């Protein structure tokens, strides 16, 4: 891999031992990818604050500097961590103090994370604490090279914003924050962003449930590749695209997709394939739609719902408003809990608009920073949960060993109020 | 005694490793897919469910799932449950970074499909400096289940 003079200087320690360790990791990583060079990034989304037993041990042994060296730089060195060189944000983490008494989570981890937030914010890390940084003001411009992790955020950044990022990890984002560099590989190159598969939709796709199911179908079909979707699509809003991408990055490893006429790098079907021949279309009709719905509901058996989970990826303000409207004047079933996960920055607005109070009056909870999958935490005794997120229906049964129902926001709220799942595909 | 087969590819992480192969016919998840504390695959629908990769050469098509992949494999190194080496087919950022932070000899881009040439139980030597893999097939019949692994049900 070819290094610039600045890269070489950083590697040789011109900017101190932490930056040298960061560059060493980027060189090892770039060589592992067979990348030709590194590129500049000025926007990093990574993770430093989320507690784990290994992190607690490292902090006990050598403080947060040691934890960053090992986990965020993959270095055995003992050195001080300098300020972040480029703007960096913390993605979703674990439950914090505002979830105490609601979401079961070890108190010592809440304390560890609170301590981490204080340390890293002093180092220049923006504690957005959400899987959707793009919903709270972190919006790279089209064509900008960034280094993000979190699969649902990566696919949004590439596809909807037209920024360029691979699906980075804890160590590569940690190194990018201190150097402003990342391997120029994969999605950073135009030819690797062009479509590989064409899906032709022949059944109406309207609203987040249908966009989520279409995403789940697309990811299952293309796996790590790049779907281009045309057909009977209603014009999506950002919420629809959030659900489409998150689902495609769950059933498969989709990091970029194109919707000709909608997403920025695909003014037309032909442009989405960069002038290469458009492959034969794979149809997505009513039969495929029903199959996806049944697949996502295949891990549900018992209609008695203990827990309703909304806000994966973290809810938009529209979702909070819609949830509040559906719960207005109603009361949750005594045996059912409802949690809505939102970025803390948006919760402030939800509070101000009165939506949080409406949801809480009904017995629901508006939680921030995390989710049941990240914190491995659900209401005690949960055996069956319902969600409007294809991603959570995909992951949570495997992670927590519980049954899942998948449906619309209205289906989920009805289940929370009645305690019974009655969702059906309409 | 079967003769050794040599595959040639490209270095991902340099170094030498020799051990028994564990071959995954399917891609592997990090977050939600493995338990670093025990060094086993925990994804219920996975063909290697409950099997240990600790101290073995992990042969797999590639990485899938969350961007936490590398962090989870780094955790196997910190917990002492890491594989001895890795051989994968598809290079992604998850798999490449994962191999780097696991710090085990790793190769990819082999001239024959490692998923068909190598079978679980074969003795495999990775010379990742040269990018070669030498496979000493285990005596037939191949057994899929390794005696030291236990299948756990949740």
TrEMBL record, chain A:
Superkingdom, natural source: Bacteria
Name of a matching Pfam family: AcnX
InterPro entries: PMDh-L-like_dom (IPR007506)
Keywords: Iron, Lyase
A GO term for molecular function: lyase activity
Span of domain Phosphomevalonate dehydratase large subunit-like: 1-414
PANTHER family: DUF521 DOMAIN PROTEIN (AFU_ORTHOLOGUE AFUA_6G00490) (PTHR36577:SF3)
Protein name: DUF521 domain-containing protein
Species, as recorded: Streptomyces antnestii
TrEMBL record, chain B:
Source species, domain of life: Bacteria
Domain Phosphomevalonate dehydratase small subunit-like: 28-107
Organism ancestry: Bacteria, Bacillati, Actinomycetota, Actinomycetes, Kitasatosporales
Name this polypeptide is given: DUF126 domain-containing protein
One Gene Ontology term of the molecular function aspect: lyase activity
Pfam families found in the cross-reference section: AcnX_swivel_put (PF01989)
Xref: Gene3D superfamilies: Phosphohistidine domain (3.50.30.10)
Keyword Secreted: no
InterPro entries reported in the protein's UniProt record: PMDh-S-like, PMDh-S-like_dom
Keywords assigned: Lyase
Record has Lyase as a keyword: yes
Source organism: Streptomyces antnestii
């Amino acid at each position: 891999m070819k290094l610039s003079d600045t890269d070489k200087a950083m590697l040789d320690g011109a900017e101190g031992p932490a930056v040298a360790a960061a560059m060493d990791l980027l060189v090892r990583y770039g060589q592992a990818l067979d990348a030709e060079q590194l590129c500049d990034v000025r926007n990093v989304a990574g993770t430093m604050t989320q507690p784990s037993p290994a992190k607690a041990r490292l902090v006990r042994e050598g403080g947060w500097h040691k934890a960053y060296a090992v986990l965020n730089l993959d270095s055995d060195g003992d050195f001080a961590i300098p300020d972040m060189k480029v703007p960096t944000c913390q993605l979703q983490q674990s439950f914090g103090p505002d979830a105490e008494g609601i979401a079961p989570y070890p108190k010592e981890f809440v304390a560890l994370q609170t301590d981490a937030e204080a340390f890293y914010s002093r180092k220049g890390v923006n504690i957005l604490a959400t899987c959707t940084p793009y919903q709270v003001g972190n919006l790279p411009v089209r064509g900008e090279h960034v280094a993000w992790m979190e699969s649902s955020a990566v696919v949004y950044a590439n596809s909807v914003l037209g920024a360029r990022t691979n699906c980075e990890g804890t160590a590569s984002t940690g190194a990018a924050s201190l150097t402003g560099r990342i391997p120029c590989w994969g999605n950073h190159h135009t030819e690797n962003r062009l479509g590989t598969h064409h899906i032709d939709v022949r059944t109406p796709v309207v609203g987040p449930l249908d966009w989520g199911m279409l995403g789940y179908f697309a990811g299952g079909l293309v796996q790590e590749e790049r779907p281009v979707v045309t057909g009977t699509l209603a014009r999506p809003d950002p919420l629809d695209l959030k659900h489409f991408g998150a689902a495609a990055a769950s059933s498969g490893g989709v990091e970029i997709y194109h919707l000709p006429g909608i997403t920025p790098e695909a003014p037309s079907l032909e442009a989405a394939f960069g002038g290469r021949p458009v492959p034969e279309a794979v149809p997505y009709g009513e039969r495929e739609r029903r199959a996806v719905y049944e697949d996502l509901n295949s891990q549900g058996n018992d209609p008695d719902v203990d827990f309703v989970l909304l806000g994966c990826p973290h809810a938009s303000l529209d979702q909070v408003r819609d949830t509040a409207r559906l719960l207005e004047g109603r009361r949750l079933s005594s045996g059912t809990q409802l949690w809505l996960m939102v970025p803390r920055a948006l919760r402030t607005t939800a509070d101000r608009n009165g939506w949080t109070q409406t949801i809480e009056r009904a017995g629901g909870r508006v939680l921030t920073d995390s989710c049941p999958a990240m914190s491995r935490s659900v209401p005690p005794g949960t055996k069956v949960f319902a969600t409007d997120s294809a991603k959570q229906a995909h992951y949570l049964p495997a992670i927590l060993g519980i049954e899942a129902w998948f449906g619309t926001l209205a289906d989920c709220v009805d289940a929370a109020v009645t305690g019974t799942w009655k969702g059906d595909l309409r | 005694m079967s003769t050794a087969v040599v595959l040639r590819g490209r270095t991902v992480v340099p170094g030498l490793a020799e051990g028994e192969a564990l071959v995954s016919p399917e891609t592997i998840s990090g977050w939600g897919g493995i338990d670093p504390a025990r060094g086993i695959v925990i994804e219920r629908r996975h063909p290697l469910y409950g099997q240990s990769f600790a101290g073995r050469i992990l042969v797999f098509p590639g990485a899938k799932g969350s961007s936490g992949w590398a962090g989870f494999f780094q955790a196997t190194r910190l917990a002492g449950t890491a594989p001895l080496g890795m051989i994968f087919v598809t290079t992604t950022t998850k798999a490449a970074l994962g191999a780097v932070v696991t710090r085990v000899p790793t190769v990819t881009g082999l001239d024959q499909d490692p998923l068909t040439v190598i079978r679980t139980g074969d003795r495999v030597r990775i010379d990742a400096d040269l990018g070669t893999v030498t496979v000493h097939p285990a005596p037939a019949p191949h057994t899929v289940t390794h005696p030291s692994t236990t299948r756990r049900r949740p």
